[in-house]
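Hi V.,

You were right to ask for the full record rather than a summary. Here it is.
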Amino acid sequence: MLKVLLVDDEQIIMQGLVALIDWEKEGFIIAGTASNGKEALQFIEHHHVDLILADINMPEISGLQLLRKIRTEQLSDAYFIILSGFAEFSYAQEAIRYKCTDYLLKPINKEQLLDVLHKVSEMTADKEAEDRTSRKMEREYLARNLIAVINGKYDEVNLEIIREQMCFKGSIRYIEIQLNEELLDEETADEEKRKYQRRLSEICADYLGDYADHCVFDVSGKENIYDIGFVYCGYMAEKDFRTEKNYLENFLSYLREEAKLPVIMLVGKKVDDIRNIAKSYSTACILRSCQGFKNLKDIYYYDEEVQVSGSGAVLCKKEIDALLQVIEQNQETEIAKAVDDFFEEIQRIGGVDGRSLNIDYLLFQLIHLATQQDDNVNQEEILRLISERSFKEGLTRGSKDHVLSFSCEYARYLAQLRQNVSGGILQKIEKEIREHFPENLTLKGLSEKYYVNSAYLGQLFRKKYGCSFKDYLNRTRIDAAASQLVQTDKKIYQIAEEAGYHNLDYFVSRFIEVKGCTPAKYRRNAKI
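Predicted structure:
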């Protein structure tokens, strides 16, 4: 409802205006009345109004004087309509000069008043749309500059822009808020995950309120990572007399409750100035890479997960180098021996404190080895997926058995990289999909059939086809179903079954996603 202030020194006219139309039906509510310009000024000083209807000839302060004062002193941006019994053009001329919305002659005609109110409604809607567009562009511009600083690729111009618009006080952390894909339904398509990510971003902004600009969509820009970046500042918790952990726990709880999605937080290292936020961001990325070797948590803190004890845990450099060598050579028997030596040395020099440090170092070295073989895929993501899949029920994350299983699996992966299997394997899999798409094909099943690591195969698939294996299979099925709809008179449920969909509702929803309409409409349109 748009709020209206009526200003007239004649009570009969005021009452007539109130009763002339159904204000609420037209989207307006009378917020107040005033008998002269002075009273009107007092009212708008304490109340917001969207529209002012004022008589031009009143004691103390006239309608024109009221308009002039409001505009010159910027007291209100409300639309203003002058009501007058005088038809002199000079009045209208002066009113226009001070951005009067319209000028109505008394006695007020109902239809003329409705026309003016409809005009105000349209102008308000247009202004709100412009404000939304302007705000969106401002936020996107601000986000681009903030991402530049987060990634460490910035200059003083980027810093100045974000400092003018945002407040950075006290300790600062980069926090990655992401969907936990391990807990999502395997059938969830990339498009659906992207929708979840956008929804999550909106919920973050709602929660943060005045700090919404500290929340940035898709900072990593990496496939298979559906993240929102959050630049946390200490004062956000302090203003409500809360601790940092309590603030983040409440934030995460709100996100999960509102989004109904599995969400986790990766909390980077604390820095003292926004120009150093890239350091915090890099530590959040480290957490993401090592996540498969950490105990399952809602919030991972770099300070807790990657730490060196006061006793000074050190690297088992000799044992790590030996393990790296046999992993690279894919010698499974030797890998088991090297893992034993690695854990014996960890126990001797660092115990539990040293284990985390040494495993993290091992992982970084493995990423480096893989990147040397193929830097076209996201090696950090593959490492995380392999570590997750090598984890078995009953094991402890980061235990000797877990590291052994992971090392053997990663050795096989590196061997596949050296063989440069991508081209031939993808051709075989593409042929397999074309010939067997109605069957229950899975990336895991195909990777086992062709002896290729499933995480690597998934990355190769994305690089070549621009989508996940699941989405590619789904599109192939839908294209086949579309051909059947046009070329045959089969029932839609039969076509769905033959395309590999055993649930008709699921088939229809997938068809709409790909083709933009229902199967029945697609068939009708093809026959026109």
